[in-house]
Amino acid sequence: MHLILKPLFEAELPADFLEILTTKLNGRELREGETITVDILGKPLRFEVAYAEPRVLKVKKNTRIEISRSPISLIEMEFERKIEGLVPFSGGFVIVFKDEVLILNRKGHKIFNKQFEKLKEVKTSGNSVAVVHDDKKLTLIHVP
């Protein structure tokens, strides 16, 4: 679970601010795009939820929270398996593993995930992803 918050105020934040913020947000349900208010030391601080994975996220102690001041966001993902290929397309990115295809939108949200026997090839065209597998099978995935 990952959360990127954009402060809607101007102030320097102390080094331990993320720990305080995690404690204050623990148990709250946040939606990507919403504006939230967090009361810290009697002062209401407003943040925009710039990114949430999943899009509706219930904050827990292990939720990774980041603060972003600029419109540029950096999303880093680490997978348990080796990435065999990366195929960009108009709707986002296709991550190809040995026997699995994971489709993410441009913000890194999962759109589709499926394992395929004998995965051979992945190609894209517009908003469609073509998967060749099991020697004679073709699966077409259209991403709206």
Describe, in short, the structure shown.
The chain is mainly beta. The protein has one helix at 17-25, and strands spanning 2-7, 29-31, 35-40, 43-53, 56-58, 64-67, 85-89, 92-96, 100-105, 110-115, 119-125, 128-133, 137-142.
Considering DSSP H and I runs of 4 or more, what fraction of the residues is helical?
Answer: under 10%
Strand order of the largest sheet: 3-4-1-6
The averaged pLDDT comes out at: 91
Poorly predicted tracts of residues: none
Order of helices and strands: EHEEEEEEEEEEEE
* Global shape: elongated
Tally of strands: 13
**What is the straight-line distance between the termini?**
24 Å
Largest sheet: 4 strands, mixed
What structural class do helix, strand and pairing data support?
mainly beta
Taking all Cα atoms into account, the compactness measure Rg is 19 Å
The fraction of residues assigned to DSSP E strands is: over 45%
DSSP helical segment count:
1
Verbal overview:
This protein is mostly beta strands. Helix content is 6%, strand content 51%. The protein contains one helix and 13 strands, in the order βαββββββββββββ. The protein has one helix at residues 17-25; strands spanning 2-7, 29-31, 35-40, 43-53, 56-58, 64-67, 85-89, 92-96, 100-105, 110-115, 119-125, 128-133, 137-142. Strands 3-4-1-6 form a four-stranded mixed sheet. Strands 7-8-9-10 form a four-stranded antiparallel sheet, with no helix packed on it. It has a three-stranded antiparallel sheet with strand order 11-12-13, with no helix packed on it. The longest helix is centred in the N-terminal third of the chain and has 9 residues, at 17-25. The chain is elongated, with a radius of gyration of 19 Å.
